[in-house]
Amino acid sequence: MSTFRIGKRTSFDVPCTVEIEQTSETLHAHVILDGDIEIGPGDEVMVHDAPTHVDFGERLVVRRTATVVRAGLLDKIRARLEGYRELTELYEVSFSDGRVS
Predict the structure, then answer these.
(1) Which of 51, 59, 73, 96 minimizes the number of CB atoms within 10 Å of its CB?
(2) Which backbone phi and psi does 4 adopt, to 5 degrees?
C-alpha cells in the first residue's frame, strides 16, 4: 500500500475493543484496534455500533468492528497544517497579570 496517494483514500475493517468508564476517579473512552495498526494525521477511525453512554460508577468494555480510512497525501498535508494553526493559537494565550511594566 503506497503512502503517497494524492487524493485517493483507502479503507479497511478491523476488530477493536471499546472501553468506557465514568467514575469519581476517571471519565474516559478508549478504542484499541487489534493488530499493529498505526493511525496517522488525517486518518479516520469509525467504530460501528459503539456504545455512547455508561452510568456513573460503571465501566463498560465491548468488542466491536472499526473502519479505518487512510488519508491521501492532500488530507495528510491539510491535517498537519490545521494542527500547526491550532497550536499557534495556543501561543497567543497570555499568562501575565495584565499590568504593563
Answers:
(1) 96
(2) -115, 55
Task: Report whether 22 contacts 57 (CB < 8 A).
Answer: yes
Which pLDDT belongs to residue 24?
92
Distance CA 64, CA 44 (A): 16
Angle at 81 between CA 79 and CA 87, to 5 degrees: 100
Instruction: Give the Cα separation of 42 and 9 in Å (integer).
Output: 10
40 backbone dihedrals φ, ψ, rounded to 5°: -115, 180
Comparing CA positions, the residue from 73, 95, 77, 97 lying closest to residue 85 is 77
**pTM (two decimals):** 0.70
DSSP lists the bridge partners of residue 10 as 70
Give the residue among 69, 81, 70 at the shortest CA–CA distance from 4.
Answer: 70
- For the four alpha carbons of 18, 38, 91 and 97, in that order, the dihedral sign comes to positive
